[in-house]
Write a structure and sequence with these properties.
By secondary structure, the chain is of the alpha/beta class. Helix content is about 35%, strand content about 25%. It has one domain: P-loop containing nucleotide triphosphate hydrolases (Rossmann fold). The protein is globular, with a radius of gyration of 18 Å. Bound molecules: adenosine-5'-triphosphate.
């Protein structure tokens, strides 16, 4: 359904200096669904993800060509406010990276930066965000504790809550479970299933079982190219490209 497309990417290429890390990517990402990005190390998964909120702008010598339409507007246009873009498109990283401050202050950080000062309003946002991240019951009596005292899985859900606090539309997740044990991983996966009713999620994962479990669509990247993209079940059960088949059956990667 065309009206469900939130990102429409065309002819996207990215160069680090002279070296091309992404080559002519064409891809449409559906709203309120989970899209998984898979592929061997160095194929450009993280680079691609970072193109969706212009995090690559921070790397010196980067050149991006092509278009990334977010709800119809090219985010690489000159008039785009990158701070506003990153509010709408949040990022969760591989290693949980809470700020060295209390649980409450971590979640209130973004809203405060965006000008919300009222204590009652902040309390409300913190509770709502922690509830959405399935952390409220665990942490409601520890709001003043340091975020660094939480377990790795709790820290990662706190980072998700911190993203949700500024009411984004998209969550980009770069291997969000790679530092977590299976129980914490399954909590994050459950959480993603609940969040996709309201948010668009794009997840980079090395774990093909995870891609198969959580996502509606999967994109397979190889050496900066998008080799195959489609419905997750179809891609894993009946890959159309030999290279996809080789990768998912473990023949290389
Ligand atoms: N800041 C950078 N400067 C120069 N080259 C970079 C930079 N970041 C990534 N690259 C190169 O771009 C290519 C793609 O890297 P990227 O991190 O996107 O791959 P990946 O698929 O996410 O890898 P992994 O699964 O190992 O995290 C690699 O060859 C990498 O060395």
């Amino acid at each position: 359904m065309a009206d469900d497309v939130i990102f429409d990417i065309s002819d996207l290429s990215l160069y680090y200096g002279k070296s091309r890390a992404l080559a002519n990517i064409n891809m449409k990402i559906s709203a309120r669904s989970i899209t998984a990005i898979i592929g061997p190390s160095g194929c450009g998964k993280s680079t691609f993800l970072k193109c969706l909120d212009r995090m690559n702008d921070l790397v010196p010598g980067v050149k991006v060509t092509g278009k990334v339409l977010f709800k119809g507007k090219n985010i690489y246009d000159r008039d785009v406010d990158v701070v506003e873009l990153r509010k709408r498109v949040g990022m969760v990283f591989q290693k949980p990276n809470p700020f060295p401050m209390s649980v409450y202050d971590n979640v209130a950080y973004g809203p405060r930066v965006h000008g919300i000062k009222d204590k009652a309003r902040l309390d409300e946002i913190v509770e709502k965000s922690l509830r959405q991240a399935a952390l409220w019951d665990e942490l409601k009596d520890r709001l003043r504790d340091s975020a660094m005292s939480l377990s790795g899985g709790q820290q990662q859900r706190l980072c998700i809550a911190r993203c949700l606090a500024v009411e984004p539309e998209v969550l980009l997740m770069d291997e969000p479970c790679s530092a977590l044990d299976p129980i914490a991983t399954s909590k994050i996966e459950d959480l993603m299933q609940r969040l996709k009713e309201r948010y668009t999620i794009v997840i980079v994962t090395h774990n093909m079982q995870q891609a198969a479990r959580v996502s509606e669509k999967t994109a397979f990247f190889l050496m900066g190219e998008l080799i195959e993209y489609g419905e997750t079940r179809r891609l894993f059960e009946a890959p159309q490209d030999r290279r996809t088949e080789d990768y998912i059956t473990g023949r290389f990667g």
